[in-house]
Amino acid sequence: MPAQTTPYGIGISLDVPYDVAVERVRHALAKEGFGVLTEIDIKATLKKKLDVDVSPYLILGACNPSLAHRALAAERDIGLLLPCNVVVYEADEPGHSVVAAMDPMEALALTGNEVVRPIAREARSRLERALEAIERA
């Protein structure tokens, strides 16, 4: 079950290798209506820019178009807080991975706009269901 891992995120730990976790994440996000708009491979970027070796770490910018549309209709500048970032990284223990997602309730609370609250709640519910599906897969 997903846990509040930070004040701004929810996540899970998996007993599967990084590559398997990434595939599970992509599939689960798609089932919940999220597309991946951006993808940042931190390992490759840091190697290229700084010649630093780090463990695999991927940031996915996930967006549910209908939720994004509703949020933008409620507050035009809310794009500053979109998309929902989901990270996948290799855990310290070999063969294990971590998946975490930005908590939309916390991020969108920054707006102070009550119209946005139910949108954020639905986004969080969808992300929680995706995390649960990843754990069960």
Describe this structure in words.
The protein has a six-stranded antiparallel β-sheet. The longest helix has 20 residues, at 117-136. It has a single domain (5-135), classed as 2-Layer Sandwich (TATA-Binding Protein). The protein contains five helices and six strands; from the N terminus they run ββαβαβαββαα. The chain has 137 residues and is an alpha+beta fold. Helix content is 43%, strand content 27%. It has helices spanning 18-31, 42-50, 65-74, 104-109, 117-136; strands spanning 3-6, 9-14, 35-41, 57-63, 84-90, 97-102. Helix 1 crosses helix 5 (117-136). The protein starts with a strand and ends with a helix. It is globular and about 45 Å long. The mean pLDDT is 97.
Please give the CATH architecture: 2-Layer Sandwich
Backbone CA Rg: 15 Å
Q: Approximately how much helix is present in the residues? A: 40-55%
Question: Strand fraction band?
Answer: 25-35%
- Regarding CATH, which class? Alpha Beta
Shape: globular
How are the secondary structure elements laid out?
Blueprint: E1 3-6, E2 9-14, H1 18-31, E3 35-41, H2 42-50, E4 57-63, H3 65-74, E5 84-90, E6 97-102, H4 104-109, H5 117-136
Antiparallel strand pairs: 1-2, 2-6, 3-4, 4-5, 5-6
Q: Which characteristics define this entry?
A:
137 residues, alpha+beta, TATA-Binding Protein, 5 helices
Summarize the structure.
The chain has 137 residues and is an alpha+beta fold. It is 43% helix and 27% strand.
